[in-house]
Structure formats: C-alpha cells, structure tokens
Amino acid sequence: MMRSPLAPPTRLLLGPGPSPVDPAVLDALGKPVLGHLDPEFIRIMDETSHRLRQVFRTRNPLTFPVSGTGSAGMETALVNVLEPGDRIVIGVNGVFGARMADAAGRAGADVTIVEAAWGDPVNPEELGQAVRSVKPKAVGLVQAETSTGAASPVELVRREIGPSPLLIVDSVTGLGGMALEVDKWGIDVCFSGTQKCLSVPPGLAPITFSPRAAQTVADRKTPVQSWYLDVSMLRRYWEEGEGARAYHHTAPISMVYGLWEGLRLVLDEGLEERWARHREAGDFLQAELTDMGFKLFARRGYRLPQLTSVRLPKGVDDGLRGRLLNDFDIEIGGGLGEVAGKVWRIGLMGFGAKKSNVIRLVQSLRALI
Ligand code: PLP
Fold it and tell me: For residue 195, what are the CA distances in angstroms to 13, 203, 331, 369?
C-alpha cells in the first residue's frame, strides 16, 4: 500500500508564532545539505552571525543561533551567566518573565522577582530599587511579553539599574519587529527565536553576548550545568577567525540556511522600514478591533504592534477560534496562564505584518460574530 505524501493545509498564521514564512525561506530550506564542517557551510555560518549582528545592532563577536527554539536561547543565557548562589533580579509581567525566573532558579540562582500587572510593562524604577537593595549579578526582563502584548522599556531599565549588573533581555517576539539596540541600550545578553518577526520556521534561537558577558562565562568557577548549551564549547564552533572549528554538535544545516535567507530579507527591507511596517499593520489592526467592540488588553503606550491582545466582548466565545481555523484557514492565539479563555492574541509578525492580512481577518471575524 502506498502512503500519501505529507499535505498540511495552508493556513494564514496570525497567532503568537510561528508566523507566515516567506516563500524564499521555504526554498532555502530545501537546498542541498552540506556537511557541518564543510568550508562552504562555515562560510554560511559566518555570514549568518554577521547578519545577526546587524539585526541585533551589535558588534559582539559572540553572536550565533543556538540549536533549539526560543526557550533554548533563554536557557543558554541563564545557565551560562549564572552560577549557583548568584543573585538575579527579574521583571515579571507575564508568562515568559515567569519562565525566566523559573529557569534562573533551576540554574541555582537566588531570584528576586519584581512583578508588574499583566498588560503593563515592567517598571524600570522598581527594578532599579531592587538592584540597589539586592546588588545582583544580573537583571532579566522580556522586551515583548507575548502572553499579554505589552512592551517593556529596555533602554530605561538599563538607565535605572546602572551600569553594573549584566542585563539579559528576551527579545523572542521583539527582534525584527520593533526597535532593539543591543549595544546602544547596554544589553549584555539578548536572545530571540526564528519563528516570530524573522519569519523563519521555529528551530533556532539567535543569541548575542557582550564581551563582558562572554568574560563572565569564561571566568566561571563551576562548569555550566548544561553540556549542550555550554557557550565555552559552542563558541569554538561558531566564532570566526580562530582557524579550525571544533565539533560540538551537528548544526541543523537546513535551519541555518533558512535563517540566512530570512536575515537577508530583513536586511534588504531595512530594519527601520521593517519596524515601521509592523507599527503600521499593528495600529491598523488595533483600530479595527476596537471598532468591532474588542477591548485592547495591554496598557496604552506600551502596546506591541506585532502582538495584539484583546479581551473578548460579551457574546464572543473563545471557541470561535476553531471556526476561524476550520472555515477560514486563519490561526489566532488564545490566552495563556491567568487570561486563558479571556483574551485572544493576534500576531502580525514578519512576512505576516500586512494590512491585507488584517482585512482578511476582520472580514472573517465579521462573518462569524
Ligand atoms: N519568550 C517569549 C517572549 C516568547 O514569546 C516565547 C515563545 O512564544 C518564548 C520565550 C519561548 O520560545 P519557544 O516557544 O520558541 O521555545
């Protein structure tokens, strides 16, 4: 008996990720697989790191994609910087900040949480106060909290916490969709994921370490708890200009091709142009949904353009998302954690951040409600 070939439906991905993938990236994923130490592949790795530096707006030599999704980036940041007993202050205003605190605790750190209400940004002054009393090695926060649609002001946070603590930023949903300036804002470790505003499938976690963060890793007294994510070994594979590359693990070749191509598209569009496109599409969506009676969940002034969260009006059931998927081939996201069943999360990320997609969604919703 012949089995039929894989044939997933074509959906319009307007959820919190993955986002629609540009056809050029899908083509890149199908290119011939090279050996992971082939000089041609190493050239592609170096170009990928170079492009990542441009997109992160950094000169950090230690910039590469971790093999794994955004969570692997988060774990890489925390387990390399933190040793058992180190203190860290973490701003928590949603699911992903809470995850960061959980992962830091598992790395043996002494975690101080500075909480903000869901839908609000983290409060830079409160983080500053916590730093003055705790004197931590590092401060962590999420730039774009995907569970609520709220942005946090990273630049202000650095100003409030002073120059001393390492600043670790989750930009899984930020990178490529909103302003992010790793060097200018004094970020020491920043990580992301490929499946949001970069519009590449999930599977890699771009990360960058400032020279002093890289030195902190080099000066550790204890080995990194994770063998797979130990940057002191990974850097010998990913860093340029050091002669022969040391085998650590087999890079996911096709995903690196996809990221290489996705970054080419980002840089060809222009970073600032891309941020503006996200802003324009997000503003349009937020105005349309408000017109339809939805209440925007995140605080005004801190609303992410690439991820809009709305409270469901009376008479609109969360189950409608299933009909949107089945009848209209459109995916949107439900609420996470404490707002499960109460909000929807609509992503306009990367290739998906277009007014035409907003119109298609709004028309479909109007047909259903
Ligand atoms: N951090 C944020 C802000 C996220 O939105 C996500 C995923 O949605 C993650 C971390 C985890 O990334 P992943 O699901 O790719 O492991």
Answer: 11, 8, 15, 30
Atom of ligand 1 nearest to the CA of 147: 5
Ligand 1 mean position, distance from CA 259 (Å): 17
pLDDT one-digit tens code per residue, 190-235: 999 999 999 999 999 999 999 999 999 999 999 999 999 999 999 9
State pLDDT tens for residues 247-281.
Answer: 999 999 999 999 999 999 999 999 999 999 999 99
Domain 12-17+271-368 falls under CATH 3.90.1150.10: yes
**From the candidate CATH numbers 3.40.190.10, 3.40.50.1970, 3.40.50.1240, 3.40.640.10, the one assigned to the domain spanning 23-267:** 3.40.640.10
- Best mutation site among 173, 198, 255 for ligand 1, i.e. most ligand atoms within 8 A of its Cβ? 173
Token pair listed for 316: 């609109």
Q: Order the strands of the 295-296 sheet from edge to edge.
A: 295-296, 307-311, 343-347, 333-334
Choosing from 13, 19, 71 the residue with most ligand 1 atoms within 8 A of its CB, the one to mutate for a pocket test is 71
pLDDT of 243: 66
